[in-house]
Amino acid sequence: MSTEADRTGPAAVPDPPLIQGDVVPFRTALKAWFLISLQTFGGPAGQIAVMQRTLVDERRWIGQQRFLHALNYCMLLPGPEAQQLAIYVGWLLNGVRGGLAAGILFVIPGMVALLVLSIVYVAFGDTTIVTALFAGLAPAVVAIVAQAVHRVGKRALSHPLLLALAAAAFVALALFGIPFPIVIAAAAAAGWAIGRWKPNALKAGGHDSAKDGPAPLIADDALHHETPSGARAARIIVFGLILWAAPVLAVALSTGTGSVFTAQGLFFSGTAVVTFGGAYAVLAYVAQRAVEHYAWLSAGDMVKGLALAETTPGPLIMVVQFVAFLGAYHHPGDLNPWAAGVLGALLTTWVTFVPCFLFIFLGAPYIERLRNNQKLSAALTGITASVVGVIANLALYFAVNTLFTESRDIDAGPLHFAVPELASAQPVALAVTAVALVLVFALKWPVLRVLGVCAALGLTAGLAGLPVA
């Protein structure tokens, strides 16, 4: 006579838990996301650390491996990975409305703060005090970007092949002027090829494990109730593309296809789909086009804009809002320059962040079914390795434009790069950069403290009558 154990067999395991409905009360989630949004300083590493501490370690809303799986997918996407991670976890906790709430709250504080700072910069940027403050902030940015190269490289370049990929990306951008999207596409293909030829080279960097505590509300093996389907994907694509394109179409019809608003809407819509590796990775491309092609702002303005973005919460890619504000202010068309600046800033923020929601809501259900697929990370690893070279190129760009007042372009066959004129070196900028490097690398000070000290040094130099412009 058979027993229940005989019928089920010794290998029978219970079905994994199912995620459905609100994992936590929506009001509680809103409060948590708002508090997280006020702490998101210091770039994606700091923002991800805040979510790790709040969601994984303290509140135990999501398990460590589930959190990292979501992060890996977000790193594979173009756009700010920290904000996309917030959308993903918000979707896991409270469905679509949870993802919308998490993503929007993640952006709003930084958007408002940077818009106010952009207005202040345009209104008072030529005064001695403001010039002196930026004379301290801009060199600090050079050190901060150099730190980003070190941090990302330490995590991503775990094999000589990946180091070679990073070096190739740097050379392609810095010496040959190869367009950024081509570099990223080639890196993704190289990562895929390395994964097939030498998969051990693509081992992920280590992560801190979660602290001991109660079982998370979303277990690592839990299944999400929302299953992927063609009909669902079609609805999201159509609705998302309409939302994404509608404001650009509206400004094109109302201000003309040749207006600065149409140009910004199209340009930043394009950058939204090639911003692999976060803000640092794409800013060299944005700076090149915005400064040299569109003439929306100067290279010095670009460095100062990143310094402002570093002081506000939210994704660093928000610096494109500053770029758009200055570009629209300087080319307002028939509008008042201040109104044009605000319109350009808001339009650019919209087209930059709406795709993030589209990518997550479209792809998350599929990624949930691929949590154990090792091949999924191959292209990501190639892109992440190349991003080290991309950020190094950005550091070089900022250093040349911050530490020297003049440079000359070298065009020799396929080579195209800028060489600074050594006689134009700025002593104050060099000194502040040296201090910032010590604070960042030796003393390991947080970003905001470094910016504060460097701003004070610049202000002191300016008030003392030293040349700071």
Automatic annotation (TrEMBL):
Protein's cellular compartments: Cell membrane
Pfam families tied to this protein: Chromate_transp (PF02417)
Record's signal peptide: none
Membrane disposition: Multi-pass membrane protein
Entry's transmembrane regions: 100-123, 129-149, 161-194, 233-253, 265-287, 338-364, 376-404, 424-443, 450-468
InterPro entries attached to this UniProt entry: Chr_Tranpt_l_chain, Chromate_transpt
Protein name: Chromate efflux transporter
